[in-house]
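sorry for the late reply, my laptop died twice this morning and i had to redo everyting from scratch. anyway the thing you sent over, i finally got around to it. pasting the sequence first so we're on the same page, its 141 residues, then the predicted structure underneath. double check i copied it right bc i was rushing
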Amino acid sequence: MNLSWKAFALGSALFAALTALFGRIGVAEMSSDLATCVRTIVILLMSAVLITVRGEWVRPQSLSTAALSAILLSGAATGLSWLCYYRALQLAPASRVAPVDKLSVVLVVLFGALFLHEEITWKVGLGAALVSLGAAIMVMR
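ok and here's the structure:
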């Protein structure tokens, strides 16, 4: 299957929306930390099955230290993000939490420019500004 990055990005958005909805329901009856742990186990199992089916397992020593370090840091950031996200869902409606969470788009643009030397075109800048404005409007009540 040769889908473009856009198809996977749309899939990510769809599943992120479902994550907020199901997460909000789940954290109503358990701690946000336990919910994050259960969610992580499910993700681990799904990833392991996919890697096995696709034959993508490799020896750890075949991975570069830089790549492995970056993925470990990404995993730590993901874990902290999920812990914060699920706690926020316990404290506020998903319709208020999700827009603030999507400010990550703006941060990615800024961090991409600062650390990865990615270009901020006028379209990217405008889009980031609109995401910020949209989040601000949706959070105000």
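The chain has a mean pLDDT of 94.
thats about all i looked at so far, will dig more tmrw
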